[in-house]
Amino acid sequence: MTTPDEVTVAVPRSLAAATFNALARYLADQTRTSGGALTPEARKLLHDLNSAASQPVSPTKPAGDAPATVMLGMGTVATLLGCTPQYARRLAARGEIPGAQRVGRIWLVPSTSLDAFRHERQEDPDGESGSAPPAEPR
After folding, report:
1. 95 with 75: CB under 8 angstroms?
2. I need a labelling partner for 39 at 20 to 30 A (CA). Which of 12, 89, 98, 102 fits?
3. Residue 5 maps to a domain
4. What pLDDT, in 10s, does the model give residues 60-117?
5. Nearest alpha carbon to residue 115 among 87, 138, 91, 81
6. Are residues 108 and 123 in contact, defined by beta-carbon separation less than 8 angstroms?
């Protein structure tokens, strides 16, 4: 259970390695500058990020039988759609990618919704029905 001072942050597994590396560099600089040591909480956070980063990851499918929904950022969405991140954001903002959610300044898309959107685009690549426009070229 979290206390009022604690915050839970979900880091997509696909970003765990980059988050771990950035946080480790930052904490190393801070402890070098202050001459202090890492708190037990910081050590646990680094351990958890490192564990998540070392597990295999699929860009659109959760590992194993996990029921959790994997949320994808626009960079990953754009790569999987073969378009620019700006175009992916426009698709999300227009509601053309089902399930896309704006969280603060970023857009997140459930992997299952992206799979359905991609499947729909493959069935109708010309967008004749108007339900799935072709991807903007890079």
Report:
1. no
2. 12
3. no
4. 555 554 545 678 889 889 998 889 999 999 999 999 998 898 888 888 888 888 888 8
5. 81
6. no
- My answer on whether 49 and 73 are in the same domain is no
| Any domain includes 92 | yes
Burial label for 132, CB within 10 Å (0-12, 13-18, 19+), is: buried
Instruction: Please tell me the total count of domains within the chain.
Output: 2
Q: Is 107 exposed, middle or buried (0-12, 13-18, 19+ CB in 10 A)?
A: buried
The answer on 104 and 83 residing in a single domain is: yes
What is the span of the domain harbouring residue 17? 13-53
